[in-house]
Design goal:
The chain has helices spanning 6-19, 28-42, 45-57, 62-76, 78-94, 112-124, 126-135, 141-156, 163-177, 181-194, 198-212, 214-227. The chain is globular, with a radius of gyration of 18 Å. It contains twelve helices and no strands. The chain has 231 residues and is mainly alpha-helical. The mean pLDDT is 97.
């Protein structure tokens, strides 16, 4: 870009690697992980490759790199993730990292729903999860079971990331996709529940701003202000 579009390279570089980096107190690891999750949600291969190299250069492990991809499947769908999973596998293999990596699953087919629902209770409160189950029409109850067993049981019980990091990743994925404002607001509250405050979430939004553009960024800010009003 510096050779073919030097003006754009300068404008974007000053914003993405200058102005927005001066806001907030996110550490480098968190900045890379949330930007990587956003790139996966956007299916942005060039940006994902840059973040992948940054991750490896800053001590983020292959297991953590793969876990960002796995986590994103539940929110963005496999169709957005699969190509970038292949990219990650090619890069890791080229660096001599043997695949597959060590398994991280801690659930079985028999207990995945139970463990997933227990995790939901911890993050969203048992009262809220019970209400979602009890208020679901009979022909839609299976979606609640899938949320417990698949989204939380299969993916989020994996011990690679704690609940605070997973909720930051989820927030990053949702605001990147756009059109997910009800889910964004739900996960703003769950971020608060696990210990991520508004300042942290605003820092994540600012970190992703250059890659999302103004409409999705300002929508995310509006959701934040609705769930956590300014004092």
């Amino acid at each position: 870009m510096a050779a073919t579009d030097p003006e754009l390279a300068k404008i974007f570089g000053n914003f993405a690697f200058g102005e927005t980096q001066q806001y907030g107190t996110l550490d480098v690891r968190t900045r890379i992980l949330v930007t990587m999750a956003s790139a996966v949600a956007l299916n942005a291969q060039a940006e994902y490759c840059r973040m992948l190299e940054a991750a490896l250069a800053n001590g983020i492990t292959p297991v953590e790199i793969k876990e960002v991809l796995y986590h994103t499947v539940a929110y963005a769908g496999m169709s957005r993730v699969e190509d970038l999973l292949n990219v990650a596998n090619e890069v890791l293999a080229a660096k001599g990292i043997q695949l597959p990596l060590q398994p991280q699953s801690v659930v079985t087919p028999a207990d995945r729903v139970e463990k997933g629902r227990a995790l939901q209770n911890d993050i969203f409160t048992k009262a809220n999860i019970d209400h979602m189950y009890n208020s679901a029409p009979a022909n839609q109850l299976h979606f609640q079971v899938y949320l417990s067993g698949n989204c939380f049981g299969d993916y989020q019980t994996r011990p690679v990331f704690d609940a605070r990091m997973r909720e930051l990743l989820t927030f990053s994925i949702l605001i990147s996709m756009g059109g997910c404002e009800p889910q964004v607001k739900g996960h703003i509250q769950s971020n608060v529940n696990v210990g991520n405050d508004k300042a942290t979430l605003l820092a994540v939004v600012t970190q992703l701003f250059p890659y999302l553009g103004y409409p999705r960024t300002l929508n995310a800010v509006a959701c934040l202000n609705e769930v956590i009003p300014e004092k």
